[in-house]
DNA sequence: TTTCTTACA
DNA sequence: TGTAAGTA
């Protein structure tokens, strides 16, 4: 299928699809007349995968790593052959760990800011009372 | 009409 | 990333 149909079926923009090819994530498996890019079902699977990973904040290198363990001609939704699917799972879980760490850091920061806010409230309160008296 | 490349905002 | 121009 050509890029227009791919865009319709993946919900990705033409720009994004071409961008992924440029970044070496997903390239059309074949070329047609006039150098037209022809995508296969497997390419579609990879694009769907990229879309989800991008949504989860995977960076280019990580997405490439994941796609690298995805063998050609094998549908993503299938049985676990014990290797590539296990690597996909590991990659996803790894990202979960990173996101948990990020949330923890954000909460820590929020707590610090709360503490600072309390401190300043106390300071301004004491200033008010001392100048008033 | 669709796609490709290149370039600009 | 969207969009536009000029092609094939």
From TrEMBL:
SUPFAM superfamilies, sorted: Putative DNA-binding domain
DNA-binding listed as a keyword: yes
InterPro entries: DNA-bd_dom_put_sf, MerR-type_HTH_dom, MerR_fam
One GO molecular-function entry: DNA-binding transcription factor activity
SMART domains the record matches: HTH_MERR
PROSITE patterns: HTH_MERR_2
Keywords: DNA-binding
Any Pfam family matching the protein: MerR_1
Sequence ranges assigned to domain HTH merR-type in this UniProt record: 1-69
Domain of life: Bacteria
Keyword DNA-binding attached: yes
PANTHER family: HTH MERR-TYPE DOMAIN-CONTAINING PROTEIN, REDOX-CYCLING DRUG-SENSING TRANSCRIPTIONAL ACTIVATOR SOXR
Name of the protein in its database record: DNA-binding transcriptional MerR regulator
Organism for this UniProt entry: Amycolatopsis cihanbeyliensis
